[in-house]
Amino acid sequence: MDFGFAPEDEAFRVEARAWLDGHAKDAQDRRTWERTLGKAGWIGLGWGEPGYGNRTATLTQQVAWAEEYARSAAPARSGHIGENLLAPTLIAHGTEEQKSRFLPPIAAGDELWCQGYSEPGAGSDLAGVRTRAERAPDGTYRVTGQKIWTSLAHEADWCFVLARTEPDSRRHHGLSLLLVPMDQPGRVEVRPIRQMTGTSDFNEVFFDGAHARVEHVVGGEGAGWKVAMSLLGFERGVSTLAQQVGFAAELGRVVRAAVESGAVGDPVVRERLVRQWAELRVMRWNALRTLGRAGDAGAPSVAKLLWGGWHQRLGELAMQVRGAAAGVGPGAWSPSTPYELDEAQHLFLFSRADTIYGGSDEVQRTIIAERVLGLPREPKGVA
Questions:
Q1: Distance between CA 325 and CA 263 in Å, rounded?
Q2: Residues classed as catalytic
Q3: Could you give the number of structural domains in the chain?
Q4: CA distance 207 to 348
Q5: DSSP result, 246-314
Q6: Residue 381 placed within a domain
Q7: Backbone angles phi, psi at 226, to 5 degrees
Q8: CA neighbours within 13 Å on the CB side: how many for 166?
């Protein structure tokens, strides 16, 4: 399938590749790397609004940048939540003051963000959030509640928090999206969540009367549900194609392991390897087909179902081709040190969560059934 990369897009790709080749190998810590990206104008390519310290790029050029970044040795991004989620939301719903205040530091890589949506009792059912934001005598808000599965909260300077600003409201009514600074000792506490991979990519965040300014409510008080749903619409897009570049690299490692172990001689293993390759190609074509489309309610859910299951099956296949050796770690275990995992073992364990986070498979199927196929809505409990 020809996505239609024009000569100027390929020139952009060459420029991106050359810049990454010249800078990625010297990258230090992730925050410094974000500032390096920002100084060169590589943050905010898809905003569509120049003037905040970012350069702009066409959709095809954004794809080229994302793919080249995924192929490079550059560090994993820690600023993508602010760049790809909050910034487009501010451009769509924020005031001019909010855009002027928050977009330049995001574009410069100076301020990092995390997303305060899910709660222990409101994960897939986001309308059940209980975190509340009450007006204080000085006119600011006091935010109290708990968020969970909060990626990069331990690095973030700010958090956009979905909270109830109407005390007796239920479900999607009475919610607001507030921008809350994380540097509030005693009022904001971050607790890492240890995963079975031994790492801590997610966190619990506790707000105990944390301050938020009235002018930092996005879209106005009570418009939180509308703004939150708009933000989720930005969550998938160009990044899906970059993700698939990483998937292809993982598949390549599994194929090499199958050859080295001799597992490729098993016709069942060969069939699974070919199926993984073919399904990955289909996912790319589907992503290119739907890229840039507006109003396609089912496309993000279909994409999530496709890649979540695919990646999980790849992790299982990585263990199968290794055989009994897959159960042995690369280092010696002791009670005082975390266990070690090699790449294949980490892939297998981490991918167990792929069909849960970002909207479980059950939720994605419900969205497709109700919003695309027009089937009767699933009964909801009363919160």
A1: 12
A2: 235
A3: 3
A4: 34
A5: HHHHHHHHHHHHHHHHTGGGSHHHHHHHHHHHHHHHHHHHHHHHHTT-SS-TTHHHHHHHHHHHHHHHH
A6: no
A7: -60, -45
A8: 15
Domain containing residue 82 = 7-108
Q: Are residues 147 and 265 in the same domain?
A: no
Convert the pLDDT of each residue in 287-342 to its tens digit: 877 776 655 667 778 888 889 999 999 999 999 998 888 887 766 555 555 567 88
Domain final position from 221, 250, 271:
221
CATH, residue 123: 2.40.110.10
pTM of the model: 0.82
Tokens of 243: 């993700």
Tokens of 254: 């599994």
Nearest to 117 by CA among 145, 80, 84, 154: 145
For strand 188-193 and strand 202-212, is the pairing parallel, antiparallel, or unpaired? antiparallel
- Select from 230, 379, 364 the least CA-distant residue to 302: 364
Where does a domain end: 58, 86, 108?
108
CA dihedral 180, 181, 183, 188 (to 10 degrees): 0
SS3 318: helix
